[in-house]
């Protein structure tokens, strides 16, 4: 489905500029995307001034983008066009002649190959932050690239054999939360992943910075550009730390010996205490499967990030969402009407329900 979105936009670009090259980067390129993640595209070509408005007009005329969704951010540090695909409602960001994202995508792929547990760890952490509105830099949270580098550093400096195929990923998740929620010294320490990874003293980093500049609270050295502090815009890093600490407490309690004595313990998901896959996301997956899944695929339960998808019943069981038969509540659906030559099925509304990092009970409020 996402490849079709890319092809539609590529078609418009290459009709305008036949020699232009379009590349995908970001989470869709690396496979580390959530159902709500956008697609990042970069266009390489030769222009005296970036043709942002020319492409915006062409996308409107071809009805590729929702009329009200397309925006040109020409004053941003990296000028981009933002749009929402009119059929799938997948969000897309288009930039011009920017190499950094493509290089970062390759770096991520290399580390995924080195550490097979990375996709599982990063996807769960991304969903965890998304539900708490801590996943966007412009709201002070941690961006995907920062989170990835934190996860890589954690695995590099971990005292377990993290390359083992039998590694307990649940234990790794709890230890990640323990490190960045409890033990990591944000005031004095920075993160570096080059040359096998190490921690760096912020005092030493500051000596090499220009006068008046100092390392941010969440200092992460960019492996592709060492003078770039990847975490500099994450002004809410301490809120993220608190959320990680909360998750460490909840998961630590869930796997403790005392928790084994709780009634219905066998029927409860440990991960479901901090993560919710909402009904909207589940419906969205079903809509995608119905319209794009082909019987000829070898393994229909795998998506492009190589992580197995569960069917609806399994998903509900894993998220503690299975009601008693006599207490079933049917919710009214409010799908967005879509017209397409491929299908008459409407696209379900896709949203996420944020959960508070303070209260365990709030993680289930969206499913009440």
TrEMBL record:
Keyword Magnesium annotated: yes
SUPFAM superfamilies in the record: Nucleotidyltransferase, PAP/OAS1 substrate-binding domain
Family annotation (Pfam families): MTPAP-like_central, PAP_assoc
Keyword tRNA processing annotated: no
Keywords tagged on the record: Magnesium, Metal-binding
Bias type Low complexity, positions: 332-368
Source organism, top-level taxon: Eukaryota
Signal peptide positions (record): none
Positions of region (Disordered): 316-368
Sequence ranges assigned to domain PAP-associated in this UniProt record: 168-228
Gene3D superfamilies hit by this protein: 1.10.1410.10, Beta Polymerase, domain 2 (3.30.460.10)
Domain called Poly(A) RNA polymerase mitochondrial-like central palm: residue spans: 2-111
PANTHER family on file: POLY(A) RNA POLYMERASE (PTHR23092), TERMINAL NUCLEOTIDYLTRANSFERASE 4B (PTHR23092:SF51)
Entry protein name: Terminal nucleotidyltransferase 4A
Native organism taxonomy: Eukaryota, Metazoa, Chordata, Craniata, Vertebrata
Designated gene of the protein: TENT4B
């Amino acid at each position: 489905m996402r490849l079709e979105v890319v092809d539609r936009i590529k078609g418009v670009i290459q009709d305008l500029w036949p020699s232009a090259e379009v590349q995908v980067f970001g989470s869709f390129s690396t496979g580390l995307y959530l159902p709500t993640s956008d697609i990042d595209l970069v266009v390489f070509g030769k222009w005296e001034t970036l043709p942002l408005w020319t492409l915006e007009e062409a996308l409107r005329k071809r009805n590729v983008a929702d009329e009200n969704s397309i925006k040109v951010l020409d004053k941003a540090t990296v000028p981009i066009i933002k749009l929402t695909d009119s059929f799938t409602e997948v969000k897309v960001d288009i930039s011009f002649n920017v190499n950094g994202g493509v290089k970062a995508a390759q770096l991520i792929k290399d580390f995924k190959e080195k550490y097979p547990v990375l996709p599982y760890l990063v996807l769960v952490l991304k969903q965890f932050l998304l539900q708490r509105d801590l996943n966007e830099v412009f709201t002070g949270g941690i961006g995907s690239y920062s989170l990835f580098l934190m996860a890589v550093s954690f695995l590099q400096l971990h005292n377990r054999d993290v390359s083992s195929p039998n590694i307990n990923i649940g234990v790794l998740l709890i230890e990640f939360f323990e490190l960045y929620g409890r033990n990591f010294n944000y005031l004095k320490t920075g993160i570096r992943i080059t040359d096998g990874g190490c921690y760096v003293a912020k005092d030493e980093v500051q000596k090499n910075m220009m006068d008046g500049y100092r390392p941010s609270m969440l200092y992460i050295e960019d492996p592709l550009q060492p003078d770039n502090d990847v975490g500099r815009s994450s002004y809410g890093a301490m809120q993220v730390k608190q959320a990680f600490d909360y998750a460490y407490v909840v998961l630590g309690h869930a796997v403790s010996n005392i928790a084994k004595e709780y009634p219905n313990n066998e029927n409860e998901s440990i991960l479901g205490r901090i993560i919710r896959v909402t009904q909207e996301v589940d419906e969205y997956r079903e809509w995608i499967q119905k319209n794009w899944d082909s019987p000829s695929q070898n393994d229909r339960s795998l998506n492009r990030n190589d992580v197995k998808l569960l069917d609806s019943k399994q998903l509900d069981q894993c998220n503690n969402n299975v009601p008693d038969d006599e207490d079933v509540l049917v919710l009214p659906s409010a799908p967005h009407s879509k017209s397409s030559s491929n299908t008459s099925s409407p696209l379900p509304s896709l949203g996420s329900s944020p959960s508070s990092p303070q209260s365990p009970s709030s993680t289930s409020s969206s499913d009440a």
